[in-house]
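sorry for the late reply, my laptop died twice this morning and i had to redo everyting from scratch. anyway the thing you sent over, i finally got around to it. pasting the sequence first so we're on the same page, its 567 residues, then the predicted structure underneath. double check i copied it right bc i was rushing
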Amino acid sequence: MRLVSFSLRNFRSITKAERLNLGSLTVLVGPNNEGKSNILLGLVSGMKLLSLYVDRMAFRQRSHSKVLSNSASRRQIYHFERDAPVRLQGRGTCRTTFDFVFELTEEEVADFRKVVKSNLNGRLPVRITASRDSIDFEVKKQGPGAAALSAKSAAISAFIAQRINVRDIPSIRTADDAVDLVRGMVEAELETLERSEEYRRAVEKVAELQAPVLKGLEEGLKASLQTFLPDLKSVEVTVTDRLSALRKNCKVVIDDGTATELRYKGDGVQSLAAMSLMHHLTKTAPVNTGMVLAVEEPEAHLHPQAVHNVRDVLSSISQRQQVVITTHSPLFVNRAEVASNVIVNENQARPAHSIAEIRDVLGVRISDNLNSARLILLVEGEEDRDAMVALLRASSEELKSHLEMGALSVEFLRGAGNLGYQTSMFKQQLCLVHTFMDNDEAGRDAVNKSIALGGLDNSEITFANFPGMRNSEIEDLYDPKLYADDLCMKYSITFPTSDFDKRKGKWSDRMKRVFQASGQQWNDAIEADLKSYVANAVTKSPDSAIHSTAKSVMDNLISVLERKLRA
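ok and here's the structure:
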């Protein structure tokens, strides 16, 4: 089970954060005091309220009711005076809503049918509503069967809580956070030991040794209390639950040159300990148990090298469990999936549309690439960049990993004429650079000028060369079958496949002839729109996008990038 989207209303400073899509790694970015932490806390609080709701429903054995009075356990998670927007608290209708959409596997859908006795299409939308006095749970599914599902809220909430949970690591990470994780691990391991006969006999021996001591204590207490309570008959002192008591407390000593209890280590060590232990927990968790790990400012308290290590750890965790973080560091931005970065500004949240937009909101100058990408692949247009990212991710697990961690970045020139300037700029930031240029007059001229000026050498250049063509561009590498039918519908043209495949002239020249032969106009705007449309088709189907004749060109580019990153 995965959490695929989350919405939040009226929680602390957040009045509305609508449908934030959550992937394997979701990054909340934005200026200080604009709501990142509150959105993350809202996600954590809503998930914890769901689990608490399940506990109370089981206790009360009721199927549908307002539950969770203003208890201490509930207030720790959600306290109306603390968590509802102050300006709305005077209104009787003030509510905080947490909306979750969960995605179930086919196996989980079958389990849902058995447990809940209802059908599901794979998506399960639910809402937790918090007010001053109560918490409600409801299923938000539309259409037939919605009422029947809502009537089974107890079973559905329990079904969710058994299959997915949230763990959070705050920005201030103390030794207690780490020890709590260790304590949980200790309890889980020792619980198995407690079932053994040898362990039980040992506990009985401890009880036997303690018995005379406790008996003496009882007699002493009885004598003292009878002075004030003459009717007192007896006093009994017992040690409850000896089996599990031996695992309730533990301490962690770390020897990194000096053996010291973790609580006395510095903030950086305590921070790393909390996150490394969480990494261990996610690796040892059952595969069929979903987890959402929420981390606030993973870079806090850490020196630069440790930040790189933490980024790698979070990336590793996201391969098994979902990770949601807040950050001020460009190192944690998900460059491979731009929409997985959520921009939080003025207490509103929305998916990012571009890396440039994220840089702006973080206040990152382009020179800060020194702290992120090791290798920059330069392509000519923005649509080329989008297509190339999809192709590299689909063609190489190694490059996919480097893109996700930010070691490899694909950037675009906004035209071949900018090659010299962009190359120089990235190299000044100590980035490796490789270019993938159209094999046409403009592309070759830009490369030759950059070589003459010392900005590039031949080992840093690959051309989008379609074998047998004098001039070609990146679109020539794509198989026309990927987009031909859709183009005919979108632009009202007739696509002469056989003539087009003769490749007399580069792709844009051939497309111009197709448009003119179909009675359609052709200009720069149409060409740009067409290239964007084709690139979008590539991003949707990267596995089948490259023409078989051009496959060797793409394979060589991938090999070159892999070698450079390994070096």
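Residues 282 and 399 are 24 Å apart (CA to CA).
thats about all i looked at so far, will dig more tmrw
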